[in-house]
Write a structure and sequence with these properties.
The protein has 16 helices and 18 strands. By secondary structure, it is of the alpha+beta class. Among the domains are: 119 residues, Uridine Diphospho-n-acetylenolpyruvylglucosamine Reductase, domain 3; 111 residues, Alpha-Beta Plaits, CATH 3.30.70; 97 residues, Alpha-Beta Plaits, CATH 3.30.70.2740. The strands form four sheets. It has a seven-stranded antiparallel sheet with strand order 15-12-14-13-17-18-16, sandwiched between helices. Strand 8 and strand 9 form a beta hairpin. Helix 8 runs antiparallel to helix 10. The longest helix has 17 residues. The two termini are 14 Å apart. The relative contact order is 0.12. The structure holds flavin-adenine dinucleotide, (2R)-2-hydroxypentanedioic acid (2HG) and zinc ion.
Length: 484
Amino acid sequence: LQRDEKYAHVTPEHVAFFRDLLGAESAVLDGVGGGVAEADLEPFNEDWMRKYRGQSRLVLRPSSTEDVSKILKYCNDNKLAVVPQGGNTGLVGGSVPVFDEIVISMSRMNAIHSFDEVSGSLVVDAGCILEVADHFLASKGYIFPLDLGAKGSCHVGGNVATNAGGLRLLRYGSLHGNVLGIEAVLPDGTIMNDLCTLRKNNTGYDLKQLFIGGEGTIGIITKVAVQCHQRSPAVNVAYFGLESYDKVQLAFREAKKQLSEILSAFELMDGKSQRILDTVKGDRKPLDDDHAFYCLVETSGSNGEHDYEKLEKFLEDVMTKEIIADGVVAQDETQAKSLWARREGITECLGHWGGVYKYDLSIPIAELYQLVEDVKARMTSEGLLGDTEDHPVVDVVGYGHMGDANLHLNIPVRRYDAAVEKALEPYVYEWIAERKGSISAEHGIGVAKKAYIGYSKDETMMRLMKQIKTLYDPNGIMNPYKYI
Ligand code: FAD
Ligand code: 2HG
Ligand code: ZN
């Protein structure tokens, strides 16, 4: 991949314009005129996995929609390429520059604007941190319809731009349904005000949907209106071990049947993911014996006693039927949190050996775990997997949002290795395409999956997407070199 010379290089004159526009010293991190050291720019140039790294010399931190509009208009007029950046927790390399694109960080636009306690509609700036929004809502008795492991750093705007799925999708559905309105700035500086706060609005094309999951390729989201829900006063969490994937499917069926309206999460973790967590974190294991699979079930309802009883009865039933081998129900909030950490902490621990190959896949549920077995067999037969230093692959791990048929296939490695890559790609994508799955369930495409989008979108779909891109961003300044 080469830098596209249609884009201008950032000059001290450009920087002077941005300084004049944004005023505050901290709003412009300038490595062009030598104002800041390279190390200060590094957090904006490098992604969360430390896998993708750009060479931007300029970071802009606007504090209003008007600022964003003036920045983009100037960049568009001067053919300066930009990368919108939220919390920089994305997992496909989409949030960092590839070459010298200007980073537009949304971190200073972090206000909570309004909340309607009757309807539950919340309006926040794009740079509001997800956990901040959720804590605010908790104080009002409400809950944000999205939760994920990176909640302490990711932005609501970044969540919307990636159409993040996360841990509550089973209960509340996707952001395509929960986002009521968006204010965004187009590359030419036009402010698109579609910040509707109502649930119903059938007045032509629903243009805001293009920004949900658009990964910053057609404009910058500046404000978001979200439909939030009543927070359940009674939340219970159970964690259990099972001996086969067939049993995991049976347990999921039973959970839906028996817990019905109070079921709020059903997450899957294989035994390897839990053993990795034990190795890296060394926390006390919730269950004594090792199992091939583990599930985390959460219920959210309005009657604590009744819900707890229902969950216990469910556990008893699936234990009697020998669907699950062992299980535990959290006795208090601290224990519930530590059980959730067995699921949310996996991603972080996987980086322990050096690198990780990540695949975020939608697969018909019956075959979901087969991919992990097949990849493991492939790695073994190619001599790539083993306990010793001369094997690049540490293990092949699977976990994910079982309730949404979303597998996270992870291959932790001691070092990135061309032979491993060759054994994985396109093999994994072909496997997915054969089963009509999706090569990206919730993380997006970014740069990581760019070459493989054809496995999930045909030529007609790609042509239509490109037409939309050209319509919104004719100069191609928004997040170039990524999926479109
Ligand atoms: P960034 O990483 O900064 O950006 C992501 C993309 O959005 C980039 O293409 C960027 O250009 C664009 N973007 C950011 N802000 C804007 C904006 N205001 N306007 C336009 N474009 C913008 N994802 C899930 O779906 N489910 C999970 O359960 C989940 N768990 C995670 C757990 C961990 C520990 C980590 C590290 C990540 C996880 N993710 C998960 C990945 C997920 O995509 C992000 O955490 C989150 O949605 C990205 O938000 P962000 O603010 O960090 O965006
Ligand atoms: C999760 O569900 C995240 O924990 C991250 O989507 C998944 O690291 C991964 O592969
Ligand atoms: Zn996930």
